[in-house]
Amino acid sequence: MTLHRIAPLPVGHPLSLGPRKSRPARIASRRTAALVGGWTATRIGMVILLLIDQLGDSGVAGEVHTLYRTWYEQLIQGAFPLDDPTWQYPPGAALVFLSPALLPWLTYFQAFVVVILLADAVITLALARAGVQGAWLWVGGLPLLLNLPLARYDVPVTAVAVLALLAARRHPRTAGALAGIGAMIKVWPLLTVLGAPPGRTTRAVWTSAAASAAALLIVLGWGFSHALSFLRQQGDRGVQIESLGGTALQLARQAGWKGEVRFQYGAFELVGPYVTETARLSLVLSALALGWLLLWRVRARHWTSATALDAAFAAVLLFTVTSRVISPQYLVWLLGLAAVCLTSRATTQRPVALLILPAAALSALAFPLLYEDVVAGTPLGCALMVLRNGLLLGAALVSCRRLWGASTARQGASRRSGHPL
User: Fold this and answer.
1) 267: which strand partners?
2) Count of CB atoms within 10 A of residue 36's CB?
3) Per its UniProt record, what InterPro entries does this chain match (predicted)?
4) Per-domain residue ranges of the chain
5) Which one of 36, 59, 278, 317 has the largest count of C-beta atoms within 10 Å of its C-beta?
6) What does the pLDDT profile of the chain (421 residues) look like in tens digits?
7) How much is the pTM?
């Protein structure tokens, strides 16, 4: 009996299984599956922590139940909160606080958490398309803040900023429009336009940002009353205990300073001698930070694919460490911008991005885990804030140094140091 060799079916034949996936395709598929699995597992853990938090009745989630829900009920009546010392946000923030209305079959708290998770998923998807390292930093870094990101409105704001930066290279007008919208939600996303390449691109980005911000302000001013009421509350804010100035004053309490902590303007702030001077010093430092950024912009000569990303990260770090607040949710912004930087091989901010991870973990220890110690200014609470704020200050200084060196150095020196031009 003669055995005949059966020829393989040609590719494309109806009974053919087709070619196997190439090795790079299999690797990419596994990476995607791992990222999706990591995101799903960590976010389920964050949701469980939020549910354990007395099912949202107090603690971290209490702000959504009380403050956000109160604002929502005022906003659906067509008016921004008036004479409310806790309302300190630009009018675009109303878009986030009203967004749970899109899910009427859920409670306000449930819908708010879904909105946050959707924004989180958008960030993860956008980062994954741009660079897997950045996506993993975001996926693994956000849970370091425990359940806090799910009960604050900073993730949607960060999503707008991340999308603006990722769009900057190919779609500058879109990037500018997103930055303008983000600025109307929480101001800081406007810093994403700072590092736009000079010339036509800068004009396109900045013009688009101004136009979108103005358009959104006009629409909100037409649809709601008291759109600018938040401005009344900004000047009255004091020194919050989590800030650099607050940490210094808390340390002074250990040496006999006669101040105290008081809950006002929706936060725990310090009151007593030298608090006003400390608040003014923070404002001066913020002004100096702005001056440095403008000087960098004037002196910068070399732009890479990462310069706009690095500049935004450095700018937000500077304004974070000079702030009178530095709430734990500020780390959401920094994690998002750090992740964007890691999507580019040309970034100068890789070591700085890694510093944000332990800073986020320490922030979670400070709030909510050991917040009583932070408020009371115990040695443990002070040590936590010194470590956290020390990391942020160090990160800001290193970030600015690396940004300046990469973009203002002579061309030959930049090539020798390995920075692409």
Assistant:
1) 264
2) 15
3) GT87, UCP010361
4) 38-219, 236-409
5) 317
6) 454 555 555 544 544 445 555 666 676 778 889 999 999 999 999 999 999 886 655 578 889 988 999 999 999 999 998 878 888 899 999 999 999 999 999 999 999 999 999 999 999 999 999 988 999 999 999 999 999 999 999 999 999 999 999 999 899 999 999 999 999 999 999 999 999 999 999 999 999 999 999 999 999 989 888 877 777 665 567 899 999 999 999 999 988 898 999 988 778 999 999 999 999 999 999 999 999 999 999 999 999 999 999 999 999 999 999 999 999 999 999 999 999 999 999 999 999 999 999 999 999 999 999 999 999 999 999 999 999 999 999 999 999 999 999 998 765 344 444 443 2
7) 0.91
